[in-house]
């Protein structure tokens, strides 16, 4: 959908991400690293998404906090693995590997980061319209 109204377009763009974000948050909530703090954040955000009311500043802050925690999970879970190769002059090389459970979390991170950007866009477009209206009166 393309709308001439930037507010409608920004809201639409955010709404299209909500179904996948709901799945991502449910997966994150079930992950073994999800402690009570992140469980509260995922529960709150899931409720807001299910009601399609995830557009206020608290939701953005909660999503930022969750993303910050996910980044730590992913970064701390990376493993440096030596890959032996007889054909390589140095005998091999190191690769950074993300375990499969964290690779899924990393995919969810990317999606939720897009949602956060879309929510910020809604907020910014609404603010711009309000400011424009105030300046014109």
Structure description:
- The chain is mainly alpha-helical.
- Strand 1 (79-84) and strand 2 (92-97) form a beta hairpin.
- Helix 1 packs across helix 2 (36-50), helix 2 crosses helix 3 and helix 3 packs antiparallel against helix 4 (100-136).
- 72% of the residues lie in helices and 9% in strands.
- It contains four helices and two strands.
- It has helices at 6-30, 36-50, 57-77, 100-136, and strands spanning 79-84, 92-97.
- The chain has one domain (6-136).
- It has a two-stranded antiparallel ribbon.
Summarize the structure.
This protein has 137 residues and is mainly alpha-helical. The protein is 72% helix and 9% strand. It has helices spanning 6-30, 36-50, 57-77, 100-136, and strands at 79-84, 92-97.
Per the principal axes of the C-alpha atoms, what is the gross shape? elongated
Tally of extended strands?
2
Radius of gyration, in Å, reads 20 Å
Strand order of the largest sheet: 1-2
């Amino acid at each position: 959908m393309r709308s001439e109204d930037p507010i409608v377009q920004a809201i639409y763009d955010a709404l299209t991400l909500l179904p996948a974000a709901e799945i991502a948050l449910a997966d994150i909530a079930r992950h073994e690293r999800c402690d009570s703090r992140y469980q509260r954040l995922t529960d709150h955000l899931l409720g807001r998404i299910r009601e399609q009311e995830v557009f206020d500043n608290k939701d953005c802050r909660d999503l930022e906090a969750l993303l910050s925690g996910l980044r730590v999970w992913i970064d701390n879970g990376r493993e440096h693995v030596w890959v032996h190769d007889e054909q390589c002059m140095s005998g091999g090389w190191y690769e950074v590997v993300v375990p499969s459970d964290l690779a899924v979390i990393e995919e969810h991170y990317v999606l939720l980061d897009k949602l956060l950007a879309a929510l910020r866009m809604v907020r910014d477009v609404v603010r711009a319209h309000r400011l424009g209206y105030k300046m014109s009166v």
